[in-house]
Amino acid sequence: xxxxxxxxxxxxxxxxxxxxxxxxxxxxxxxxxxxxxxxxxxxxxxxxxxxxxxxxxxxxxxxxxxxxxxxxxxxxxxxxxxxxxxxxxxxxxxxxxxxxxxxxxxxxxxxxxxxxxxxxxxxxxxxxxxxxxxxxxxxxxxxxxxxxxxxxxxxxxxxxxxxxxxxxxxxxxxxxxxxxxxxxxxxxxxxxxxxxxxxxxxxxxxxxxxxxxxxxxxxxxxxxxxxxxxxxxxxxxxxxxxxxxxxxxxxxxxxxxxxxxxxxxxxxxxxxxxxxxxxxxxxxxxxxxxxxxxxxxxxxxxxxxxxxxxxxxxxxxxxxxxxxxxxxxxxxxxxxxxxxxxxxxxxxxxxxxxxxxxxxxxxxxxxxxxxxxxxxxxxxxxxxxxxxxxxxxxxxxxxxxxxxxxxxxxxxxxxxxxxxxxxxxxxxxxxxxxxxxxxxxxxxxxxxxxxxxxxxxxxxxxxxxxxxxxxxxxxxxxxxxxxxxxxxxxxxxxxxxxxxxxxxxxxxxxxxxxxxxxxxxxxxxxxxxxxxxxxxxxxxxxxxxxxxxxxxxxxxxxxxxxxxxxxxxxxxxxxxxxxxxxxxxxxxxxxxxxxxxxxxxxxxxxxxxx
Length: 610
What we know:
Blueprint: E1 20-32, E2 36-43, E3 46-53, H1 59-63, E4 70-79, E5 94-105, H2 122-127, H3 129-132, H4 136-158, E6 162-163, E7 181-183, E8 191-193, H5 199-207, E9 212-221, E10 232-242, H6 246-264, E11 275-278, H7 279-285, E12 299-301, H8 303-306, H9 312-319, E13 323-330, H10 337-349, E14 356-361, E15 364-366, H11 375-387, E16 408-415, H12 417-434, E17 444-448, E18 453-455, E19 462-464, H13 475-481, E20 491-496, E21 499-506, H14 511-520, H15 525-531, H16 533-539, E22 546-549, H17 553-561, H18 591-596, H19 605-609
Helix pairs in contact: 4-6, 4-17, 5-16, 13-14
């Protein structure tokens, strides 16, 4: 028998009444009722109420316990009286009468109140993460994460994927985010890199003849933190398939993701096959490449209508290459004046002068832009933006007397295309949220047909827009004859509720294609062969067509748990400054360690004083 317990703190039921049991755990709560002392004993599995009478010889010892002390108790299981049953706890119909007591670990003052959901600073929570993880919600999150990963592994294996681990120490890549570098002691002046993803290795596994690979892969990127991205380290469901088209990739992963979200959440999940949205369409209609499809609003282009208007600001912008994007919301004409004033203030925060709009109410059209438009223009906008898109604030749709022209408000953004896309996307998101238009479910989609290349805004040079190892649509002919900025790639993102879960691609597996693709992005053949030596050499010996994807584990768990911050689903995350406050990392190392690595520090003045 285990010397510390016969049962865990979530196991006892009515069938155990009369049995003598031993429990060990943390003191979750203690309540003194004079002659009776109640202790809620907690372990990983649950909570059991224990009680001791003031006449008991162990009463004084139990009385001395504090929250989070670790104790062992022996006692008899008894049934609670009907008026004291706790129906919210699986063990709430019984309690244990304490007969023996042992203090295993005494606790003085705690820096965190474990049994409370009170707000704490992130610094305190991460410094004492081992205590923070005792709190009920985050403890459940980590348990759920483990269960999700186990379920993913089972489903991937059943689908014929083989789990293979790839190296952690590898070479630095010239593409992507910043690498974490590891100096080599045996090779002075040379560095390993922690993998940003197992990209090259998983492709090499396909060259090696492994048909379907996967792993729950740790990835390391030296990039800034945000709510849905943890700095430093994150995990993804990394997989690759040989002799696979884009459709094959989608067909393989969609059922697994769908089943995971159905298994671990009570919300409805959009059925597969998931919607496929071309990148250009997403940028036009949603203003971003990771649209939240719970929001029914779409964006329209109305530049052609304003070209002939007398609104000089828009006309001048259009002449200089600008666009005019419009978002219509049926029923929004009922909003108070303050609603429109706040939207104008918001627009100024986005560094645009203001937010143009037209309010359609019956036969009337009003708003700051109406005087610059003809009656025909006003009607054309109504038909294109409102009548063609039946999204209402109210359940009853408000039809005007003119055909299918609905009442509502049309909002306008005019700027250069990239700025207009960004701001109209943010406006779509704000309107959907503020007006309560977003449904409460999981809506998945694929964004497809990404541009192969883009212009670097700082240098004006062409660079890869997404994954440099992607297959261009049209193959070598497209690379040799098309404007690089017009070339599409077999690249795709899977998006859920406005969160990008993964990027993937059908790979460029031909050496001549690889040389040409990198040449367009500014890498000569010698550099390409040197930087991607392992992959380039392997491709010369026969590489099958292959592709894959890598949905983020952390982001999936964050969505399923409905946590707003990714750090709530990671056991030991770094803070926003990429620091581990609990383990004091990163930290200085000794001069001897640096000497072994043949490294001398050249720190900026401020850092040298710290």
